[in-house]
Amino acid sequence: MASSKIIVNYFDLTGRAEIIRLVLVYAGKEFEDNRISRDKWPEIKPKSPFGQLPFVEIDGKVYGQSLALANFFAREFNLYGRSNLDSLKIDQVAQLNEDFFQEVVKVFTADPEKKAEVEKKLQEEAAPKFWGFYERLLKENNGRYFVDDEVTLADLIVYDAITGFIGSFTGPLPDRYPLLKALVEKIGSNQRIAAYKAKHQ
Amino acid sequence: MAPKSMRLIYFDARGKAEISRLVLAAAGQTYEDVRLTKEQWPAEKPNTPFLQLPVLEIDGKRYGQSIAIATYLAREFGFCGKSNIEELQINQAIQLAVDLMNTGSKAFYESDPAKKFPKYFQFFEKLLKESGTGFVVGNSLTLADIVFYDLVFNYISRKVASIEGYPLLQALSKTVESNEKIKAYLAARKPTEF
């Protein structure tokens, strides 16, 4: 894997691909960050395994499903915990976040006249629910990280939920989640992450 | 380190717990298969990590999220591939199935539900073709096979889809059903609507 050639294919957005990019950036693994414009997508589509983005080429073979890929790279680069139980704790966060993502999907698939109402529900009910779960899980561990005493995929997933795609629909994190705020600060000020984010403002 | 005691807590249904039960069955693993009634649920709800079922209790500690639980069990008992790339392929297949289930509830209310499924069944068939072993990944039973099997079983038993025209998917269903331990489990399984 250290010498593997990796190409992440996605639109020029955070969206579903950002977690893959964050894992690779955090791990210091070089990759081609192939950002595709909407009009180029139809000609690239046949290359994708399931007619969707993101898809990732690993030494010439293509794979889809952002969470499967994020997990894979997390395992490759020791960001997936030290035991099966650690991995369960990480997957718990990852799957909760998938549920959170589905709440956001409700907003952009809502009928135009229902959209404002659905968005309000996301911001006032769903977001506090998931933020609350994440804050509690941090507290139940050691207040600093989701698993053990180091960054794992779970921390990057929640960082992405707050600063990336989900966060753009929920609005900024309220102050009543101090542990989450501290986590986002810490990940955001990681040298590699900060440099990467600066490139894609 | 294998857990000393496990309880899988859910309703009296297959639903989101069944893939975990199938993994445990295939592994020949004893566990407590706790089934709550609708009346018991309100009192139990605050005792769950995320106010939902299923919950897996491992040596007294509770965990939620059906896919996380099933994957933990699959890894614990050797149904999650023999390499990281195999685990990627297994997760890829499972996430595809989850995508289908996410669109599936909408399709249930659509006038032509058959529209949604062919796309995904084609992907499942494609993965099986690429594998060429009769299993989704590698050459033995993994969580990917169990997830596909359970999904197909649900859709067919509720008559919302058919796998006519997907011979590899049909064969996979039979393969999973004829796994010795799963066969015994299915024979004893009480039929439930969901």
From TrEMBL, chain A:
<dbReference type="Pfam" id="PF02798">
    <property type="entry name" value="GST_N"/>
</dbReference>
<dbReference type="InterPro" id="IPR004045">
    <property type="entry name" value="Glutathione_S-Trfase_N"/>
</dbReference>
<protein>
    <recommendedName>
        <fullName>Glutathione S-transferase</fullName>
    </recommendedName>
</protein>
<feature type="domain" description="GST C-terminal">
    <location>
        <begin position="83"/>
        <end position="201"/>
    </location>
</feature>
<feature type="domain" description="GST N-terminal">
    <location>
        <begin position="4"/>
        <end position="81"/>
    </location>
</feature>
<dbReference type="GO" id="GO:0004364">
    <property type="term" value="F:glutathione transferase activity"/>
</dbReference>
<dbReference type="InterPro" id="IPR050213">
    <property type="entry name" value="GST_superfamily"/>
</dbReference>
<dbReference type="InterPro" id="IPR004046">
    <property type="entry name" value="GST_C"/>
</dbReference>
<dbReference type="InterPro" id="IPR036249">
    <property type="entry name" value="Thioredoxin-like_sf"/>
</dbReference>
<dbReference type="GO" id="GO:0006749">
    <property type="term" value="P:glutathione metabolic process"/>
</dbReference>
<dbReference type="InterPro" id="IPR036282">
    <property type="entry name" value="Glutathione-S-Trfase_C_sf"/>
</dbReference>
<dbReference type="InterPro" id="IPR040079">
    <property type="entry name" value="Glutathione_S-Trfase"/>
</dbReference>
<dbReference type="Pfam" id="PF14497">
    <property type="entry name" value="GST_C_3"/>
</dbReference>
<dbReference type="InterPro" id="IPR010987">
    <property type="entry name" value="Glutathione-S-Trfase_C-like"/>
</dbReference>
UniProtKB/TrEMBL annotation, chain B:
<protein>
    <recommendedName>
        <fullName>Glutathione transferase</fullName>
    </recommendedName>
</protein>
<dbReference type="InterPro" id="IPR010987">
    <property type="entry name" value="Glutathione-S-Trfase_C-like"/>
</dbReference>
<comment type="function">
    <text>S-crystallins are structural components of squids and octopi eye lens. Contains relatively little if any GST activity.</text>
</comment>
<dbReference type="InterPro" id="IPR004046">
    <property type="entry name" value="GST_C"/>
</dbReference>
<feature type="domain" description="GST C-terminal">
    <location>
        <begin position="59"/>
        <end position="194"/>
    </location>
</feature>
<dbReference type="InterPro" id="IPR004045">
    <property type="entry name" value="Glutathione_S-Trfase_N"/>
</dbReference>
<keyword id="KW-0273">Eye lens protein</keyword>
<dbReference type="InterPro" id="IPR040079">
    <property type="entry name" value="Glutathione_S-Trfase"/>
</dbReference>
<dbReference type="Pfam" id="PF14497">
    <property type="entry name" value="GST_C_3"/>
</dbReference>
<dbReference type="GO" id="GO:0006749">
    <property type="term" value="P:glutathione metabolic process"/>
</dbReference>
<dbReference type="GO" id="GO:0004364">
    <property type="term" value="F:glutathione transferase activity"/>
</dbReference>
<dbReference type="Pfam" id="PF02798">
    <property type="entry name" value="GST_N"/>
</dbReference>
<comment type="similarity">
    <text>Belongs to the GST superfamily.</text>
</comment>
<feature type="domain" description="GST N-terminal">
    <location>
        <begin position="4"/>
        <end position="81"/>
    </location>
</feature>
<dbReference type="GO" id="GO:0005212">
    <property type="term" value="F:structural constituent of eye lens"/>
</dbReference>
<dbReference type="InterPro" id="IPR036249">
    <property type="entry name" value="Thioredoxin-like_sf"/>
</dbReference>
<dbReference type="InterPro" id="IPR050213">
    <property type="entry name" value="GST_superfamily"/>
</dbReference>
<dbReference type="InterPro" id="IPR036282">
    <property type="entry name" value="Glutathione-S-Trfase_C_sf"/>
</dbReference>
